[in-house]
């Protein structure tokens, strides 16, 4: 991968509870947290007693990890995502770009626009604000790293309100004809430092 620092995934991990229990209900829990409050001592030491809770985690084993959402991006010298910015440039046998630096195809490390090519959330997890959380986190991370000046992406008209909620602004119908066209250009600035 040419620019993994511009990509982000969100995962769900599943654990197996290895705690032996006679209670069938407890056996079904992935992670169990128990709180044991220490009783206060009688007499003059009552106000000195440790009243902080003790937490005990049951023993669990990692079972699996599932990617449920991702953002994939490259950098471009243009202000918007274009057909050519989504094309793969010609590479040599070592995976280096053969084309001159003015070729708009592919990733350009010196580019000041993060071109988001894919934002996906597994259908089983949609409607739970995971896409919003993923994009907000992505925007914050990229802004902190200062990799560029702006974000750009393509979206169908029905998704414009979703992207506007996380800070993108529609720039109108795109000239991009990728996958039949009908796209809108959207842009967002990197978030300002606090």
Describe this entry's structure for a reader:
There is one protein chain. A six-stranded mixed beta sheet has the order 1-4-5-6-8-7. The radius of gyration is 25 Å and the shape is globular. The protein is α+β, with helices and mostly antiparallel strands. It has helices at residues 24-27, 130-145, 160-165, and strands spanning 8-17, 33-36, 54-57, 60-76, 113-121, 150-155, 169-173, 184-189. Helix 2 (130-145) links the parallel strand 5 and strand 6 (150-155). The longest helix has 16 residues, at 130-145. It starts with 7 loop residues before the first strand and ends in a 5-residue tail after the last strand. The chain is built from three helices and eight strands, in the order E-H-E-E-E-E-H-E-H-E-E.
Brief rundown of the structure:
This protein has 194 residues and is α+β, with helices and mostly antiparallel strands. The protein is 13% helix and 31% strand.
Radius of gyration: 25 Å
Q: What's the number of structural domains?
A: 2
**What is the distance, rounded to the nearest whole angstrom, between the alpha carbons of the first and last residues?**
32 Å
Number of helices: 3
Total beta-strand segments? 8
Spatial ordering of strands, largest sheet: 1-4-5-6-8-7
Outline the low-pLDDT stretches.
Answer: 30-41
Instruction: Please state the overall shape, judged from the principal axes of the Cα atoms.
Output: globular
CATH class of the largest domain: Alpha Beta
């Amino acid at each position: 991968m040419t620019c993994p620092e511009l990509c982000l995934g969100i995962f769900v991990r599943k654990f197996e509870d290895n705690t032996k229990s006679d209670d069938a209900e407890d056996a079904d829990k992935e992670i169990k947290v128990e709180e044991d409050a220490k009783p206060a001592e009688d007499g003059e030491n009552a106000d000195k007693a440790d009243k902080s809770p003790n937490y005990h985690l049951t023993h669990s084993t990692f079972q699996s990890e599932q990617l449920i959402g991702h953002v994939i991006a490259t950098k471009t010298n243009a202000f918007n995502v274009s057909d050519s910015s989504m094309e793969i440039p010609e590479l040599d046998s070592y995976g280096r770009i053969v084309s001159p630096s003015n070729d708009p195809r592919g990733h350009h490390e010196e580019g000041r626009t993060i071109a988001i090519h894919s934002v996906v959330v597994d259908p089983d997890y949609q409607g739970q604000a995971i896409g919003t959380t993923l994009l907000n986190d992505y925007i914050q991370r990229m802004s902190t790293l200062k990799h560029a000046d702006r974000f750009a992406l393509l979206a169908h008209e029905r998704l414009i309100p979703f992207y506007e909620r996380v800070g993108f602004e529609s720039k109108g119908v795109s000239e991009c004809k990728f996958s039949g066209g009908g796209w809108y250009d959207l842009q967002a600035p990197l978030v300002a430092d606090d």
